């Protein structure tokens, strides 16, 4: 008999639900059914799929409260934050469904002069079945970044939620089945890491993984055995940089929300701040004034740490920073309790300490003074992670955002890129590769298919053994004529 496990409320320890520990056999069965469903789903075409996805979107929106309550119970995050997260996931679903045809549908492209006797077409066909492995910190928004886009691209999905949030995963699949009955286009398998590993070995056509860098490497290694492609959305150590001309109130507000919201358990959360020396003290005062108002407690602005083992990591980072000369202007070693961590603001932390180099995933932030924005960019770019970034500057925001090594950046606001469905989401370096969201997120779950159609016989046929020496000479003349001169480009 399949064993079961419990998901717990991290604030109280109460049991929220029990779920099966699915092994390889159960995962294989789900993937087999998904392949059948994928045949039906992909044959529907974009318009009909959009109708189905819009129906699901309606169910999600009407039951937003129910979904948010379950997210609150399983993660401990405040109900309003859960509602915000679920609402943004619904917005992405709507965008993916609406734009799939435009991005992926068949379109004609120019065949070029050499092949002018052809018509050329490109379209993006579904992969088949996509395995989605998700984390617990944003149990709806994060996996939906893969699920919604993979479904809209015409794939069936088998989703393995985190062992801490299996109920949210189950709820999403059940609500889909109500909106789209009869075909298991979205299924959930539950369990621990081994269930995720089984999904990697199940013959799915792609695995979309979101989680830590270490697990991402294991997922990639397992998928390599069957040459299964992967998208890896991994951890981050995002910076916020503050220029001397920045709106300091707005920057301080963004730093506190970016670092502390969701108790700091955000892949694109602000973990490091580099601030121009001319405005450093005023900025820090603004951060402290705001962070002092944030309490981690039942009913507070931030909830508990969802994964108990993360408490040790957060404690270790704070201890390491303070033992090596760092100062806690707020919080500190005593801020780490049994379930809750109080906001912690660290300054004078050595750049090679773990609070600066590793993902902390708690409501903590390091703030360092820099002499120039060049120094801020170079310190920002010293990280092996490169997920998101935030820049506060009146004059140079976009310039600095472009120079920071990251997949995404927000200027004069924080994490806003994640809420804009047309923007691709993902990182580089240890933060992973591949993209969810936006047109790139749709293409991530599709195979480009190129078709060239000969419309009439060309005077010069190149792909035949009957080609003559005269044809070869004509071809050489043509290439010289077309590409032999270096053209003068118009001035921009
Ligand atoms: P983990 O890497 O621990 O787990 C992620 C998922 O992988 C879980 O479902 C987990 O299952 C599963 N898993 C564990 N071992 C294996 C395995 N060997 N093979 C396949 N799957 C496996 O991450 P967390 O859940 O702790 O999530 C937090 C991390 O996610 C942070 O590093 C955060 O930065 C990152 N993240 C990245 C985002 C991005 O978009 N870049 C967004 C959100 C979070 P189980 O839980 O059952 O062990």
TrEMBL record:
One of its GO terms (biological process) is aldehyde metabolic process. One of its GO terms (molecular function) is oxidoreductase activity, acting on the aldehyde or oxo group of donors, NAD or NADP as acceptor. Residues 4-451 form the Aldehyde dehydrogenase domain. InterPro entries: Ald_DH/histidinol_DH, Ald_DH_C, Ald_DH_CS_GLU, Ald_DH_N, Aldehyde_DH_dom, Aldehyde_DH_NAD(P). It holds the Pfam family Aldedh. Keywords: Oxidoreductase. It comes from the Bacteria. Residues 1-20 are annotated as: Disordered. The active site is at 233, 267. Belongs to the aldehyde dehydrogenase family. This is Aldehyde dehydrogenase. It comes from Solicola gregarius. The lineage of its organism: Bacteria, Bacillati, Actinomycetota, Actinomycetes, Propionibacteriales.
């Amino acid at each position: 008999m399949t064993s079961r496990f419990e998901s717990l409320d991290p604030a109280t320890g109460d049991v929220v639900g029990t779920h099966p520990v699915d092994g390889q056999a159960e995962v294989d069965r789900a993937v087999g059914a998904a392949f059948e469903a994928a045949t039906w789903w992909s044959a529907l075409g974009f318009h009909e799929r959009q109708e189905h996805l819009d129906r699901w979107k309606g169910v999600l929106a009407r039951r937003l409260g129910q979904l948010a309550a379950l997210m609150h119970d399983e993660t401990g995050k405040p109900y309003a934050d859960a509602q915000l997260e679920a609402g943004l996931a619904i917005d992405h679903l709507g965008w993916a469904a609406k734009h799939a045809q435009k991005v992926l549908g068949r379109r004609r492209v120019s065949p070029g002069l050499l092949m002018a006797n052809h018509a050329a077409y490109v379209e993006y066909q579904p992969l088949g079945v996509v395995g989605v492995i998700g984390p617990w910190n944003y149990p709806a928004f994060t996996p939906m970044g893969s699920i919604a886009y993979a479904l809209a691209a015409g794939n069936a999905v088998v989703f393995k939620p985190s062992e801490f949030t299996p109920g949210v995963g189950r709820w999403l699949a059940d609500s889909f089945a109500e909106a789209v009955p009869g075909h298991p286009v979205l299924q959930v398998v539950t369990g621990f890491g081994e269930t995720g590993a089984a999904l990697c070995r199940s013959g799915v056509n792609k695995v979309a993984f979101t989680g830590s860098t270490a697990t991402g490497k294991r997922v990639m290694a397992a998928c390599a055995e069957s040459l299964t492609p992967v998208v890896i959305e991994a951890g981050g150590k995002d910076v916020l940089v503050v220029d001397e001309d920045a709106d300091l109130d707005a920057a301080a507000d963004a730093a506190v929300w970016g670092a502390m919201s969701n108790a700091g358990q955000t892949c694109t959360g602000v973990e490091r701040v580099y601030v121009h020396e001319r405005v450093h003290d005023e900025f820090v005062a603004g951060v402290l004034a705001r962070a002092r108002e944030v309490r981690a407690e039942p009913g507070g602005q931030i909830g508990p740490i969802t994964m108990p083992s993360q408490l040790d990591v957060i404690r270790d980072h704070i201890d390491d920073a303070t033992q090596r000369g760092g100062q806690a202007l707020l919080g500190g070693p005593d801020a780490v309790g049994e379930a809750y961590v109080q906001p912690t603001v660290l300054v004078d932390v050595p750049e090679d300490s773990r609070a600066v180099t590793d993902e902390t995933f708690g409501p903590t932030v390091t703030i360092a003074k820099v002499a120039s924005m060049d120094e801020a960019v170079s310190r920002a770019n010293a990280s092996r992670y490169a997920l998101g970034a935030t820049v506060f500057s009146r004059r140079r925001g976009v310039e600095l955002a472009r120079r920071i090594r990251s997949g995404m950046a927000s200027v004069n606001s924080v994490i806003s890129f994640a809420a804009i469905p047309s923007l691709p989401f993902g990182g580089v370096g240890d933060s992973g590769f591949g993209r969810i969201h936006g047109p790139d997120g749709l293409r991530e779950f599709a195979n480009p298919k190129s078709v060239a159609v000969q419309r009439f016989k060309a005077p010069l046929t190149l792909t035949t053994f009957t080609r003559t020496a005269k044809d070869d000479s004509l071809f050489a003349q043509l290439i010289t004529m077309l590409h032999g001169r270096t053209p003068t480009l118009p001035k921009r």
